[in-house]
Design a protein that fits this description.
Layout (H helix, E strand, L loop, with lengths): L2 E3 L3 E3 L2 E4 L15 H10 L7 E3 L8 H6 L9 E6 L1 E2 L7 E2 L3 H15 L4 E6 L8 H13 L3 E7 L3 H7 L5 E7 L8 H10 L3 E4 L15 H7 L3 H12 L3 E5 L1 E2 L2 E2 L2
Parallel strand pairs: 3-4, 3-12, 4-5, 5-8, 8-9, 9-10, 10-11, 11-12
Antiparallel strand pairs: 1-2, 6-7, 13-14
């Protein structure tokens, strides 16, 4: 069953996560640019209607690859901002209002749109008052730069604080069958009617391997371990959107 983001953007519950289109440590260009481009161009054929990216992936490179889907007919592009990327595997929060605005304006230009479908705060910066961050985002939404606002990597308390300033349309978080530490956040999203975007749904491909802990169950059902992991997620909650990724050997699904 599809799910509605913000009440008006209807998407399928299996989306695509564009972080692994880039180099190791989510930094630099992909080792095989042609393969990354081919993967993105294949998404409409696969029925994908939700694509998750960020200006931090690359940085910028993931958004540039997603741009090949422009004008995004039938596809909702969700991007993020609020992180600096000085080197591979390094993620530095920067929630200063001026930097959040620069992130939004940069994503608008890179993706070639006048308004972002979904813009997510990648992480709440502990060095900047949360109200200042949410207030800056709400102002950009009122300005018409953002259609719907999402949060990423947040606690229940941070969701509630954000809702005092704006309407939270999505929450993106790590969640899969063997790592359920964010279950309280998922359950809070269920109560509030907020779509919960589960990233790393296959535990960075571990659940898709032939020796996965799901292999025995998947074999009985006549499906792959990866399919079993995704099916579990979609059945776990109608609020979940699972974003699978491209691995070194192809699409992990």
């Amino acid at each position: 069953m599809p799910i509605a983001i913000g009440g008006d953007l209807v998407v399928e519950r299996l989306g695509f996560g564009a972080m692994r289109l880039v180099g190791a440590g989510a930094f630099g260009p992909p080792p095989d640019l042609a393969a990354a481009q081919a993967t993105v161009k294949l998404l409409p054929e696969l029925g994908v209607s939700y694509v998750d990216t960020s200006n931090a992936y690359g940085p910028l490179i993931s958004e540039m690859l997603v741009r090949s889907l422009h004008p995004y007919a039938g596809i909702v592009v969700a991007t993020k901002g609020g992180l600096l990327r000085p080197a591979p595997f390094q993620w530095h929060p920067d929630g200063r209002p001026e930097m959040l605005r620069a992130a939004v304006l940069g994503s608008l230009k890179t993706l070639g749109v006048e308004r972002l479908d979904v813009w997510q705060l990648h992480v709440v910066d502990p060095k900047v008052p949360a109200g200042e961050q949410y207030g800056a985002i709400a102002a950009m939404q009122r300005e018409g730069l953002i259609r719907h606002v999402g949060l990423s990597n947040v606690s229940v308390e941070q969701i509630d604080e954000a809702r005092r300033h704006l309407t939270v349309a999505t929450v993106t978080h790590l969640y899969h069958v063997i790592d359920r530490r964010n279950e309280p956040v998922l359950e809070h999203c269920e109560r509030l009617g907020i779509p919960f975007v589960a990233y790393a749904p296959l535990a960075v491909a571990a659940l898709a391997e032939p020796d996965s802990i799901l292999a025995r169950t998947a074999g009985k059902l006549g499906i792959t371990p990866g399919q079993a992991a995704l099916a579990w997620l979609l059945r776990r909650s109608p609020a979940i959107i699972a974003i699978w990724v491209k691995s070194r050997t192809g699409l992990v699904a």
